[in-house]
Amino acid sequence: MNFTAQIILLLGGLALFLHGMNVMTDGLKAAAGSKMKAFLQGMTRNRWTSLVAGTGITAVIQSSSVTTVLAVGFVSAGLISFQSTLGIILGANIGTTITAQIIAFKITKASWIMIAVGFLAGFLFKKKIVKNVGTIILGLGLVFLGMSVMSEATAPLKSYEPFLALMEGLDNYVYGILIGALFTALVQSSSATTGIVIIMASQGLIDIEPAIAIIMGANVGTCVTAILSALGKPKAAMRVAVSHILFNVLGVVIWYGFIAQLAHLVEDISPGSESRQVANAHTLFNVANTFLFIWLVNPISKLVVWLVPEKKKKEERLFPELHDFYLEDVSLALDLSQNSIAKLGEKVFEILKAGIPMALTGKENELVALRNKDAIIDRGHAEILTFLQNIQSQSISKEQTHILERQIEAVNVLESAADVVTTALVEAAEHRIEKGFDVSIDTVRQIAVAHNMALDAFDKAVQSYLVDDTSVDDSLAKERFKQTLQDVRLYLIDRLSVTDENRIEIYRFESEVLEGIRRIHALARRLKRKAG
């Protein structure tokens, strides 16, 4: 045997296989679009619908990691409970078995045709759906080409005595489980491990029982990927990874004593086809585990929450859910940033609501507290903008670019609105306190009318932005506000005749407050225009 050539062939085939899986997954994700996110969110009412959702999404996109990212994202955004994700994780374990079933079909000879068709579809056609389908076919072709190359690399092992002796040693299932776990942890793909086992079984290099032990080990090894991907990520991600470990490791422990029985079962189901026997064993193993653990979702979720508790110290970040972990799914990331913008909008509205009365009549310590709130808004503004910048660096569609631009504009409007009160009007109010004058009760009432109208406009603008609706005609309300503003201005001008040594200073201050209210209303109009 030429070991160097065989190793190069094996590694090259594995690289083709893994790259093909990535290409196929990217194509499937693009074809599914945001529909998979909506489907997943709508199917988390209970453990059974969550199970169906996890199975369906993973079967379509052939990536349990993408399904997991979506699930974790929904938990972080508060859209679903952590408990709901357990059904999704179990479903993802079933969904991944589709890969082994596809690989077991011996159509590797069609790999070059699939690669050619997939490439031409993406190269010659401009229609997005055709390009996506072409990418899927191209990826699948690369998977089968990798399988073919690995098969060629392992063929000489049929007559290599040291290797055959090594395979006989796998009668000890523990060795098989360890090999499967280590190899999967190394290449970070249980599908690759399963694919190689299917090749070896079809060539008679490995018996069905040790083959089952290896694919069970692959289920353990894939947990390493989950743990590595969760390190430094949100708490919800680590809980999902721990749940994944519990399900998969316990599944192997339970089935360890029944490997021989499972082997006999799949031999009866698919006599004479070793590749189908391995694929069927993989499917039966995961399906049986899923329907066992689905009844234990409640106690397992409590155990995981106990194992991975929340930090007692409060998170410093205003929006900890805006984590780079979620950039793997742009549609989800945009949803999370939208939720954060809504939360920021609530904080800004509270400042606008309390800020004007406080500027007119508030004491120095109240103004200091109001100014400190600006730091919170600025921090939230920076966090959201940084996250949006990271989204922008991803590969995003034209529609997603439009959403991103709207979100950037919206978060800037919110920050500007807060600055009107916490910077400009607080400075004016501090000058009021320094000069020692007060605003009359009648003036406070007059200004309050305009203030309430501006607040109402701002609140409605935020709601219109969040629901993406500009259909409401508010031209009448706009005219009423302009008239009210003019009436207050005339009232303030009229009061210039009042005898008071601070009258000019008071008038300038009151005019500044009124101008602040006008700017808040103008920002509300700007935000509303950005809806849709």
Structural notes for this entry:
With 532 residues, the protein is mainly alpha-helical. It folds into two domains: 3-307, no CATH class; 324-530, Phosphate transport system protein phou homolog 2, domain 2 (Methane Monooxygenase Hydroxylase, Chain G, domain 1). 80% of the residues lie in helices and 0% in strands. The chain has helices at 3-32, 35-42, 47-61, 64-76, 82-95, 97-104, 111-124, 128-154, 161-168, 173-187, 190-202, 208-230, 235-255, 259-269, 274-293, 297-307, 330-361, 364-392, 398-435, 441-466, 475-494, 503-530. It is elongated. It starts with a helix and ends with a helix. The model has no long low-confidence stretch (mean pLDDT 81).
Keywords:
532 residues; mainly alpha; Methane Monooxygenase Hydroxylase, Chain G, domain 1; 2 domains; 22 helices; elongated
In short:
With 532 residues, this protein is mainly alpha-helical.
What is the rounded distance between the termini? 66 Å
Number of strands: 0
Total domain count: 2
Low-confidence stretches: none
- Could you say which overall geometry the principal axes of the C-alpha atoms support? elongated
- Helical content class: over 70%
Task: Indicate the mean pLDDT.
Answer: 81
Class from helix and strand fractions: mainly alpha
> What is the CA-based Rg, rounded?
31 Å
Strand content: under 5%
Task: Summarize the helix and strand pattern as letters.
Answer: HHHHHHHHHHHHHHHHHHHHHH
- Biggest sheet features: none
Q: Helix segment count?
A: 22
